[in-house]
Design brief:
The chain is mostly beta strands and 231 residues long. It has helices spanning 31-36, 118-126, 132-135, 180-187; strands at 8-10, 17-19, 23-27, 47-51, 56-58, 69-71, 80-82, 84-90, 106-113, 116-117, 141-143, 147-148, 158-163, 166-172, 198-200, 208-209, 215-220, 224-230. The chain has 4 helices and 18 strands. One of its GO terms (molecular function) is acetylpyruvate hydrolase activity.
Length: 231
Amino acid sequence: MFAIDSTTLDVAGSAERFPVRRVYCVGRNYADHAREMGTDPDREPPFYFTKPADAVFTVADGYAGGPAHEVPYPPQTENLHHEIELVVALSSGGSDIDAGSALDHVWGYGVGVDLTRRDLQDAAKQNRRPWDLSKGFDASGPVSALVPAASVDPLSGRIWITVDDELRQVGDLGDQIWPVADVIAHLSRSVTLAPGDLIMTGTPAGVGPITRGQQVRGGIDGIGELSFVVR
């Protein structure tokens, strides 16, 4: 027999922990990012991929006085990319959820970075193969501490990321093609959502490479920030 440790995320200002069940990610949910990836956002419904639950972990903001968190540079790539995202944490779920009540299922929100082995993803796409390992590798989902939903407006807020203090991505949650309520409703038609599920809701334009030794910092106004060094 062997033990399996469950993944949990920090809750801001509390000793409480949020247990993670599954991690769903929305692809190309900002029009400007869809265009930079070569697709037409006006013709595409949302689509999803997943990360293993233990790929996500809490990263504090080292700029706020704590030590800089180190995130390992993954193997099998020389083109690691950052993608800053709003993370949605569910306290309840179900199937065929109505968009009008979808936000009632949200426990809270966080800031996440979808780390991507872009060279592996590009090669998989060219060969029409699955690109799971370009997204779902170890430590591929650093996330800030979560904050309760009552304090957050998921329809607006500046979202941004810097690398070595250079602004790389900046946008607004209001720019999402599919806002949080619509994503929850749409996803629940395909899978039964449950407490502990996370949804990473897509990234604005400006995704790009990060290399060993660089400092990454990102945030969403009204939710929080995170920072880490790539080692």
